[in-house]
């Protein structure tokens, strides 16, 4: 799987219902080879505030499963943080 293919399979939902933007759902769809990675990342991300996510840790989780998927998710998280999290 390529980076673009992986990126197109990532699905996540963010919610600010609590007043803080948090991951509500996470999955990597139509990629059975990424099932373990998706479960590991889901466990880490769901319920966590976007501002509190550690992209280095996400990449580290991928070392045990699939580095490509973890790297893509870390990039997506970083892009989302740049868009939605304002540092003062």
Description of the molecule:
The structure is a single chain. By secondary structure, the protein is of the alpha+beta class. The protein has helices spanning 3-9, 35-45, 55-64, 67-84; strands at 10-15, 22-28. It has one domain (3-84). Strands 1-2 form a two-stranded antiparallel sheet. Strand 1 (10-15) and strand 2 form a beta hairpin. Helix 2 packs antiparallel against helix 3 and helix 3 packs antiparallel against helix 4. It has four helices and two strands; from the N terminus they run H-E-E-H-H-H.
How does the SSE layout of this entry go?
Layout: H1 3-9, E1 10-15, E2 22-28, H2 35-45, H3 55-64, H4 67-84
Antiparallel strand pairs: 1-2
Helix pairs in contact: 2-3, 3-4
Kindly report the average pLDDT value.
92
Helical content (DSSP H or I, runs of 4+): 40-55%
Poorly predicted regions are none
SSE succession: HEEHHH
Q: Give the strand tally.
A: 2
Tally the structural domains: 1
Number of helices: 4
Strand fraction equals: 5-15%
Widest sheet: strand order? 1-2
Q: How far is the first residue's CA from the last residue's CA?
A: 38 Å
- Helix/strand structural class: alpha+beta
Shape: globular
Main sheet properties: 2 strands, antiparallel
Rounded to the nearest angstrom, the radius of gyration is 12 Å
Tag the structure with descriptive keywords.
88 residues, alpha+beta, two-stranded antiparallel sheet, 4 helices
Write a concise synopsis of the structure shown.
This protein is α+β, with helices and mostly antiparallel strands and 88 residues long. Helix content is 52%, strand content 15%.
């Amino acid at each position: 799987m390529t980076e673009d293919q992986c990126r197109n399979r990532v699905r996540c939902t963010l919610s600010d219902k609590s007043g803080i933007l948090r991951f509500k759902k996470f999955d990597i769809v139509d990629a059975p080879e990424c099932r373990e990675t998706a479960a590991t990342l889901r466990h880490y991300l769901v319920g966590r505030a976007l501002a509190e996510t550690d992209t280095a840790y996400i990449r580290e989780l991928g070392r045990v499963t699939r580095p490509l998927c973890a790297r893509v998710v870390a990039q997506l998280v970083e892009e989302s943080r740049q868009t939605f999290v304002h540092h003062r």
